[in-house]
Amino acid sequence: MKKDEPPLDFPDTLEGFEYAFNEKGQLRHIKTGEPFVFNYREDLHRWNQKRYEALGEIITKYVYELLEKDCNLKKISIPVDATESEPKSFIFMSEDALTNPQKLMVLIHGSGVVRAGQWARRLIINEDLDSGTQIPFIKRAMDEGYGVIVLNPNENYIEVEKPKIHVQSSSDSSDEPAEKRERKDKVSKETKKRRDFYEKYRNPQREKEMMQLYIRENGSPEEHAIYVWDHFIAQSAAENVFFVAHSYGGLAFVELMIQREADVKSKVTAVALTDSVHNVWHQEAGKTIREWMRENCCNWVSSSEPLDTSVESMLPDCPRVSAGTLLCRSFRWGSQFSTLPGTQKNLLFPTEFHT
């Protein structure tokens, strides 16, 4: 028999969940010291998933705080000319992001629930902050004299509760005989009663109906990348701009290239892709873009081959090399600089990157 589902009412702080990050950046229960447990209540997968998602939202805010307090980044609202009432998003930048004359690093995460400053929420919860966030990348880049811009490509809309629509009863607007109207209303009420009973069994706690209000010029990861390029990166003083883009972030970068080819070529020195899902054919990237990518981009992919070993690709876009692992474990920078294969351009590429 189906268990009664507890209320979908979860804490809004880490302390409320009785979890905290220890000195190693690992999420641990404050009383037992144990890692996070997904199956907190057996046979209630939906409730456990909602609990996990609620914790994930808290962690997103926690990472935002770290970006500002620990990395000294500024939170910049976009669109830059947004009115007070319209939906807004934001990115993070170092103090010198637009004024550093030498070099600027731009970080783009992948798709899904991750937000600015994160590579993978699951890694933050199950491994540690260094594995799942961009913080080690940001700190290393700033130590090496880079300005930094952290994109937020999945923050495309805000959700608000859908207004309830009151449907006028058929008995108020119909010219049918009263007896026929009463019969129809009775059938309608019985049908609704059965539907509500089934819905209560299937979904014991009907959640509020929400609607999405998209953020102007930032309604998709691709739009967001172009917007941040036009309003920030293109306006920066840096002579050399470097990108690190993971998964769907690679696709967003290729779309940026297609839309702003000449500008990107004039400012971007090198691009480190990690398990990028871009496709130069589906995205209809031209020959000149593909040629530029072969010289200036490298894609580290999951592979059992030793780190940086060349990996064959069916697409004639950019070199693919091994990330040195098949396991989805962590994102880390090694202690050395790496040279983009086929070029003499040095970049803080992940020499110990684990996807």
TrEMBL record:
Pfam families: Arb2. Residues 10-307 form the Arb2 domain. InterPro entries: AB_hydrolase_fold, Arb2, Arb2_dom. This is Cotranscriptional regulator ARB2A isoform X3. Residues 162-201 are annotated as: Disordered. PANTHER family: COTRANSCRIPTIONAL REGULATOR FAM172A (PTHR21357:SF3), FAM172 FAMILY PROTEIN HOMOLOG CG10038 (PTHR21357). Residues 177-190 have a biased composition (Basic and acidic residues).
